């Protein structure tokens, strides 16, 4: 099924599973739009910090989520994010922002406030939607649902490499602990917990290169008739 006539591929999975880079690459290759839903939750976290809002203020947080103006780039080599007109690309990527986003993402009012905004990303010619609940809650009718995972050790190693490359100083054990904590919170929350949709194809990428993951997803896309290569 399409979303208002637009084909959607949902790519969900835990932190560090590689779904961000895979989704960006797929979207760029297909010329489709990209929804990095984590960046939306991170933007709310950043905005909340700036407005002095805490997790005990769900209504104010939801209002901030509805009000904020965000713009993201889908380009392969240009991962840019603007919040209320300001370039927040680097700020969004910090571990601190990710941890705050995960706490804020457990608040039902915030998730509800972002639902429509996420659905609006489904525009022709197609959408690659990257997140935790793309296949379960936001795009339950998605044509293809992938649940991308990898071992905790491998995910921590990948995140470590990514952050060091971006000039962000972190320690691998701290990162591993942080990811485990975030997994736990994302998987056990009451609303939209992290889990594969019933009709998702689960792909463990621990032993796979990004190219192999992309090839697998493209083959699945081919099976749906959405894409042939
Ligand atoms: O994917 P990323 O690490 O940028 O996401 C940051 C946090 O936002 C996640 O840990 C998760 O708690 C939350 N999130 C979510 N639902 C999504 C995307 C992200 O709850 N669809």
Any overview of this molecule?
- The radius of gyration is 17 Å and the shape is globular.
- A five-stranded parallel beta sheet has the order 2-6-1-7-8. It has a three-stranded antiparallel beta sheet with strand order 3-4-5.
- The chain has a single domain, classed as P-loop containing nucleotide triphosphate hydrolases (Rossmann fold).
- The chain has ten helices and eight strands.
- The model has no long low-confidence stretch (mean pLDDT 92).
- Helix 8 packs across helix 9.
- The chain starts with 7 loop residues before the first strand and ends in a 5-residue tail after the last helix.
- The chain is 50% helix and 14% strand.
- With 229 residues, the chain is α/β, with parallel strands linked by helices.
- A hairpin with an 8-residue loop joins strand 3 and strand 4.
- The structure holds cytidine-5'-monophosphate.
- The site of cytidine-5'-monophosphate has 14 residues, from helix 2, helix 5 and helix 9.
List keywords for this structure.
229 residues, alpha/beta, Rossmann fold, five-stranded parallel sheet, 10 helices, 50% helix, binds cytidine-5'-monophosphate
What portion of residues belong to β-strands?
Answer: 5-15%
How many alpha or pi helices?
10
At the fourth level of CATH, the homologous superfamily is: P-loop containing nucleotide triphosphate hydrolases
Average pLDDT, all residues = 92
Strand order of the largest sheet: 2-6-1-7-8
What do we call the CATH topology? Rossmann fold
From the spread of the alpha carbons, the general shape counts as globular
């Amino acid at each position: 099924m399409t979303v208002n006539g637009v084909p959607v591929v949902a790519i969900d999975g835990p932190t560090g599973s590689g779904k961000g880079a895979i989704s960006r690459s797929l979207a760029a290759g297909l010329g489709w739009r990209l929804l990095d839903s984590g960046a939306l939750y991170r933007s709310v976290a950043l905005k909340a910090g700036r407005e002095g809002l805490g997790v005990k203020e769900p209504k104010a947080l939801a209002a901030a989520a509805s009000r904020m103006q965000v713009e993201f780039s889908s380009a392969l080599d240009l991962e840019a994010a603007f919040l209320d007109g300001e370039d927040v690309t680097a700020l969004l990527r910090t571990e601190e922002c990710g941890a705050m986003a995960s706490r804020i993402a457990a608040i039902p009012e915030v998730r509800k406030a972002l639902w429509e905004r996420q659905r609006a990303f489904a525009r022709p010619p197609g959408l690659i939607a990257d997140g935790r609940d793309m296949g379960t809650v936001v795009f339950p009718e998605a044509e293809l649902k992938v649940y991308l995972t990898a071992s905790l050790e491998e995910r921590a190693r990948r995140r470590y490499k990514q952050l060091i490359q971006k000039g962000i100083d972190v320690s691998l054990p701290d990162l591993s602990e942080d990811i485990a904590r975030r997994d736990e919170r994302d998987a056990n929350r009451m609303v939209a917990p992290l889990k594969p949709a019933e009709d998702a194809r689960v792909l463990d990428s621990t032993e796979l290169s990004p190219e192999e993951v992309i090839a697998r997803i493209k083959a699945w896309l081919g099976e749906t008739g959405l894409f042939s290569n």
